[in-house]
Design brief:
The complex is a heterodimer of chains A (268) and B (386). With 268 residues, chain A is an all-alpha fold. Helices cover 72% and strands 0% of the residues of chain A. In chain B, strands 1-2 form a two-stranded antiparallel sheet. The chains are: A mainly alpha (268), B mainly alpha (386). Chains A and B meet through helix 4, helix 5 and helix 10 of A and helix 4, helix 5 and helix 6 of B.
Chain lengths: 268, 386
């Protein structure tokens, strides 16, 4: 276990340093320091991908540990790697871009590649709704606000990363915990999500997941129909409450925005 | 091998056909405009101006490409790419026929991604990304006219996505699926086109579809004379051509959706009746492809007809129409469809149609009543110059 922790740390420290170096500090856009940071991030990603994921010390011998890289490669595997790389790289660029407009665009890139990953896992509806809700509406609203708030380019305070060190450190801890959790899951249950990827794709994660939970509705009606049925039978109360919450939010937004009456016109 | 080849052939077919179709639809549009305005239209290049699209294309390519001063170069390039790529990508789940008999008794569905569970949702999702091209084109041009035009257009596109989505929910309720092949098959099986059953939904769909494709009554993004064009003011040459191209692709998409959702797709009584997918012969498959695409062409001609028959909306009228007319109408349609689906027998389309048309009558009466109850709006008096 200790050896494993050191490995994870060794792969993640370059990531932490790289992100920290890439964070905007109001300097030149293409300073060598930022390039160094980018190189470190790429190095760390390579280390993580070539990393033995299944146990290093358990019953399985050291040499037979499976790296993500050495899984049997099918077309869906290549697609997975490409999408995952785009997703992570775009996320890094999103938090390190100097121009908020670019940040918003990289964010939509993250969402798009994540939707691709959902599609690959058979969660079609999740992919489509992520694109509609996030990429198609929320990020566009961000863009609206950014463009209207700063027509003359980004303000100086937007080119600074405040608390760059602490946020990079938080990222390090979070990714360390996630990778460790993945590792443990792989050790106790070798046919976890990553192992299943090799044989994919026809069964959806939704089906697998619901079968594991003994949820019959989703298992017998996979995909959109089953999802809808479940939302409006088992989860109907939470759906209604969410709807009510959204309605209240809309009413509240209208209240805050105020309304233009004849009087305000006259007073002008 | 064949599982690679089949989608590749379909992709080549769809992309090639849509590109050629756009080039010639521009010619058809100009001819139709000329016909409606008692002119001749393009008639210099080739017989009846048939080579005009080639001349147009050459002109687009040979024009000078200008990137304005202070423009964000990357985003300026990205905007037309984004809008064209999304407009093309949408066709991945749109069927362009029924099936063709393949080798080994298997039938090949005429869709790039057949049996997609989220077919229609995919079209909406990818279509909603087109707004990036608009908003980025406006912002990256470093021009106030472009920026304001981009904001105006994206507000229009986002607003009309809501009634567009509402209008198709009725169809989804009746079909019980988001899969467009199932939607067509349901209409073919019952022999009822859903434009007859849900006229209100169709009206809302057409109006919002027109607005989404920025066709004339709603073409505020494109009106050069009055509003300085908008987000593509600063674009020249082929980059401008890509925006124009994407606009036509949007129109084709909306026409396909209208035909598939409301006009029965490949179904036509007697000529192309309902059959199981594995019983369709080669001739039947060909007839169905022709029927579907002929309907689409008629729908496109209808769009062109509207274009030269209607005046353009003012911006506040445009927004009022979306939020105060189309969304309530879409909700009424949805309520009726939900009622029918819950309380009527699955095949009782006669009662559904009667209810649908009663709703149209009710809405017309209500509109006439509320229009007569209000005093006529006072028009702002024009400012005299000189």
């Amino acid at each position: 276990m200790a050896q494993f922790s050191f490995r994870v740390l060794g792969a993640l420290v370059p990531l932490f340093l790289g992100i920290f170096l890439m964070l905007p500090r109001g300097g030149a856009d293409r300073s060598p320091i930022r390039w160094l940071g980018a190189a470190l991030v790429v190095l760390s990603l390579v280390l993580l991908v070539t990393f033995p994921l299944t146990s290093a010390e358990g019953a399985v011998a050291e040499s037979s540990g499976t790296a993500l890289w050495s899984l049997p490669q099918t077309l869906s595997c290549y697609t997975f790697h490409a999408l995952a790389f785009v997703s992570v790289a775009a996320a890094a660029l999103m938090i390190t871009a100097r121009n908020p407009v670019y940040s918003a665009l990289w964010f939509s890139m993250v969402l798009l590649s994540n939707s691709g990953l959902y599609l690959l896992q058979g969660a079609d509806f999740l992919a489509a709704s992520t694109i509609i809700v996030y990429a198609g509406a929320i990020v566009v609203t961000f863009l609206f606000v950014i463009m209207l708030a700063q027509p003359n380019g980004a303000a100086r305070y937007d080119r600074f990363a405040r608390e760059g060190f602490l946020s990079a450190l938080t990222g390090l801890l979070l990714s360390g915990v996630l990778i460790a959790a993945l590792h443990l899951a792989m050790r106790t249950e070798p046919r976890g999500p990553v192992a299943g990827l090799a044989s994919r794709p026809a069964d959806s994660v939704v089906t697998i997941h619901s079968a594991a939970n003994g949820n019959s509705l989703l298992a017998t009606h996979p995909h959109v129909g089953g999802l809808g049925r479940m939302l409006f039978t088992e989860q109907v109360v939470s759906v209604e409450i969410t709807g009510l919450l959204l309605l209240a939010a809309v009413v509240g937004a209208m209240l805050i925005a105020g309304h233009r009456t004849e009087e305000t016109h006259v007073r002008k | 091998m064949s599982e690679w080849l089949e989608p590749l052939i379909k992709i080549a077919l769809v992309v090639g056909a849509s590109q050629a179709a756009v080039a010639y639809l521009v010619l058809v549009e100009r001819k139709a405009a000329a016909y409606l305005q008692d002119r001749l239209g393009p008639n210099r290049v080739g017989p009846w101006g048939l080579l005009q699209p080639l001349a147009d294309g050459l002109k687009f390519i040979l024009k000078e490409e200008i990137v304005p001063d202070g423009a964000d170069r990357w985003l300026f390039l990205l905007a037309p790419l984004a809008i064209l790529a999304t407009a093309t990508f949408v066709f991945a789940t749109i069927p362009f026929g029924y099936v063709v008999p393949g080798p080994g008794g298997q039938s090949i569905a005429l869709t790039i991604a057949p049996n997609s569970d989220i077919g229609l949702l995919f079209v909406f999702a990818v279509g909603s990304l087109g707004v990036y091209g608009v908003i980025l084109g406006g912002w990256a041009s470093n021009s106030k006219y472009s920026l304001l035009g981009g904001l105006r257009s994206s507000a229009q596109l986002i607003s009309y996505e809501i009634p567009l989505g509402l209008s198709v929910i009725g169809v989804l309720l009746f079909a019980g699926s988001l899969n467009m092949e199932t939607i067509m098959t349901e209409q073919a099986r019952s022999g009822w086109w859903w434009v007859v059953v849900q006229p209100l939904g169709f009206v809302v769909f057409m109006v919002s579809g027109c607005a989404e494709a920025t066709r004339l009554p709603f073409d505020l993004p494109e009106c050069e004379q009055e509003l300085i064009a908008g987000y593509h003011t600063e674009y020249t040459g082929m980059k401008f051509g890509m925006f124009a191209f994407a606009e036509y692709l949007h129109m084709i998409t909306i026409a396909f959706l209208a035909v598939i959702l409301f006009f029965g797709g490949w179904h036509f009584w007697g000529l192309a009746p309902y059959t199981e997918a594995n019983e369709v012969g080669l001739l039947g498959a060909l007839i169905r492809v022709i029927v579907l695409n002929f309907k689409v062409l008629l729908m496109i001609f209808f769009f062109m007809w509207i274009r030269w028959s209607w005046p353009r909306f003012r911006y506040d009228q445009l927004m009022d129409l979306a939020w105060k007319a189309m969304i309530p109408l879409g909700l009424i349609n949805l309520a009726i469809c939900a009622y029918c689906q819950e309380f009527l027998k699955p095949d009782d389309y006669t009662t559904r149609a009667i209810l649908g048309w009663l709703a149209v009558g009710g809405c017309l009466a209500w509109g006439a009543f509320s229009a007569s109850a209000q005093p006529a709006p006072v028009r702002p008096s024009p400012v005299r110059v000189g």
